[in-house]
Amino acid sequence: MEVKQVFPIFEEGRILKRDSLDFIRDYAPDFFSLLFREYGDGVIVGFPVHGDGKKIVVGPGILKQEDSFFCMKKEVLLEFGLYGQLVQVILRKMDSSISPDFKTERFELLLEPVRVLGKGEYELGRFLLEQGARLRSYEEYKDFNDLITEFNTLNPVYIPFACEGGNTLAPFILRLYGRSVLSSPKAEPLDLCFSAACLSSPCVSAELIQSYLSAKERGISVSQGNWDLYQGLKRLYAKLVSGGEKRQKSREMGGKTMID
Questions:
Q1: Residue 257 lies in a domain
Q2: Residue 47 belongs to domain spanning
Q3: Is residue 126 in some structural domain?
Q4: pLDDT tens-digit profile of 165-184?
Q5: What is the C-alpha to C-alpha distance for residues 254 and 130, in angstroms, rounded to an integer?
Q6: 254: confidence class by pLDDT, cuts 50, 70, 90
Q7: N or C end: fewer C-beta atoms under 10 angstroms in the chain?
Q8: Domain check: are 121 and 41 in the same one?
Q9: Is residue 189 predicted with pLDDT exceeding 60?
């Protein structure tokens, strides 16, 4: 499904149109550019994913790509039929065009078996859905251990959330970690400080997570990739939180439609 956004273009000698003024009212690119200019590419906010087994719904959100921002303002429904396969939700930039009055950027949402993504493609989650089942989304996670199950649960670990200098784990993943660790009697001062940051900061950088893991697990090298950061936090969670036993290992995860 194709999605697009339109920007007004103002040049001397052209007639000022009401539609152009409406676009200014609804979208302020300069504000986003100033607020997030140090951030890497990725999701700024939103794009929640849920589904009922026949349709997958992607909610509104904002994505940063290089110096531009894509705002999807409405929910998008995607037809689903890839049961029993590891599937990822992908937001992909298609192209952009400029007319005398507007600049248009076109994106598309896809559901595809998991693969390595290319330039201009961003994962919004992955899952393996059984026929007739409902996809559980992050509002339903019980705790940090509940993030990845083998079936019918959205895996958010690979979503690239934008942060200063790059991208990081989704904030709700870190809130689940921080909420439990903060109340753990086994938590040390460093754990408490990190957990407080997870709960109070809108975004915790990959660099900070990596530094925390390195301090806690001396001798273990951790990259800033989302999967490695998650695995590091999972090891600590099992040590710090009562009942943090390992869950069953998930299988390695992975239609196409157009939005206007």
A1: no
A2: 2-166
A3: yes
A4: 899 999 999 999 999 999 99
A5: 14
A6: very low
A7: C
A8: yes
A9: yes
DSSP letter (8 states) at residue 138: G
pLDDT tops 80 at residue 87: yes
Identify the CA nearest to 150 among candidates 133, 173, 162: 133
| CA distances from residue 142 to 145, 216, 227, 253 in whole angstroms, order as listed | 8, 25, 20, 21
H or E element at residue 6: strand 2-8
Residue with tokens 């019918």: 152
Tell me what pLDDT residue 29 has. 65
Is 125 within a domain?
Answer: yes
Q: Based on the fold, state whether residues 142 and 61 are members of the same structural domain.
A: yes
Return the DSSP state at 139.
G
Q: Is 131 contained in some domain?
A: yes
Tell me the CA end-to-end span of the chain in Å, nearest whole number: 8
- Structure pTM? 0.81
Q: Could you tell me which residues come within 8 angstroms of residue 62 by beta carbon, excluding any fewer than 6 positions away?
A: 32, 43, 44, 45, 46, 69, 70, 71, 72
Q: How many domains does the chain have?
A: 2
CA distance 52 to 59: 14
What ranges make up the beta strands (E) of 66-218?
68-72, 76-79, 86-98, 102-113, 121-128, 161-163, 166-168
